[in-house]
Write a structure and sequence with these properties.
Helix content is 46%, strand content 13%. By secondary structure, the protein is an alpha/beta fold. Helix 7 packs across helix 11 (246-254). The longest helix is centred in the middle third of the chain and has 19 residues, at 119-137. The chain starts with 6 loop residues before the first helix and ends with a strand.
Length: 290
């Protein structure tokens, strides 16, 4: 008689079988391509309770089991002020999927709900600070976040349309405020659709953002409200109707920026003028800092 699989076993099997091409392979490709994990790393996988961070946790567990280069994992959950039902949902999902979470609390929702200007930016910045601090306290040298390819593409469009700058979201980043700490994004090559399909296949229910701003967006008739990121999602949906490869093109462009065709750029916070290229024909570049 065949042994009945647990919900966790079914979810894990689906990662490397049913969704091998869309989840496991792109995940491993990102880890290798951007050199995100090194032997001896101790990585804090940051879990918000949403679908992205949960699938990241399961993929990291699978990688840890199969890698030839051992590394350690901590599954870190910060409670920014969830209501009891949301906190319970996170803990129930962790038990169901056998993720040994470490939970700590902060007052982020209390602070950001009284801020009118850029509350989401403040929330993200505060979250990262708390996560870095706790991870460092636990002896970690990296934190892993659940940003995926769709996040990267949407961030690129947001910067262009609303930030007046051509910028994106890097696959890894050294912390400026926590020496020795690094942020990595192992889902960098994974499309959000694959995560949604995995969630639905396993009949899982995850936490949304759980703040008043997300609730306002969900209550809006257009499904956007004041969310510029949701606006980018809808724009991409429309553009894909006539150009199915538009996301692939944007993602490829992030990896192949033609700097010598631009009028200027920033590097490490410094602004450079690239007009010198106009006068050069194949020699070394001579960009001038301004």
């Amino acid at each position: 008689m065949a042994r009945e699989l647990t919900p966790c076993a079914i979810a894990e099997r689906s990662l490397i079988k049913t969704y091998r091409k869309t989840l496991w392979n792109p995940f491993v490709a990102a880890v290798k391509r951007y050199e995100l994990i090194a032997p001896g790393d101790k990585i804090a996988v940051c879990i918000s309770g949403g679908k992205d961070s949960i699938v990241l946790a399961k993929l990291m567990q699978e990688l840890q089991r199969h890698t030839d280069h051992p590394f350690d994992l901590v599954f870190l959950v910060m409670d920014p002020g969830y209501n009891p039902a949301n906190r319970q949902l996170i803990e129930e999902n962790a038990r169901r999927l056998e993720i040994p979470i470490t939970v700590f609390e902060s007052n982020i929702f209390e602070v950001t709900t009284v801020v009118d200007r850029n509350p989401c930016y403040l929330c993200a910045k505060m979250r990262r600070g708390f996560l870095y601090s706790k991870a460092q306290e636990l002896g970690c040298n990296k934190i892993a976040l659940g940003h995926h390819m769709s996040d990267v593409i949407e961030t690129t469009l947001l910067g262009l349309f609303y930030g007046a700058q051509m910028q994106s979201m890097p696959p890894k980043l050294h912390s400026k405020n926590f020496p020795g700490m690094e942020l990595i994004r192992p889902l960098y090559c994974v499309h959000e659709d694959a995560i949604i399909n995995w969630r639905n296949y396993n009949d899982l229910r995850f936490l949304q953002c759980a703040c008043r701003f997300t609730e306002a967006r969900d209550a809006a008739e257009d499904g956007v409200g004041d969310s510029k990121r949701q606006e980018m999602k809808k724009l991409l949906w429309e553009l894909k109707k006539t150009n199915p490869n538009i996301e692939k093109s944007i993602f490829a462009a992030i990896h192949d920026a033609q700097i010598d065709t631009l009028a200027g750029c920033k590097f490490n916070g410094r602004r450079y003028a690239l007009t010198d290229y106009y006068h050069q024909l194949g020699g070394e570049t001579g960009a001038t800092e301004v």
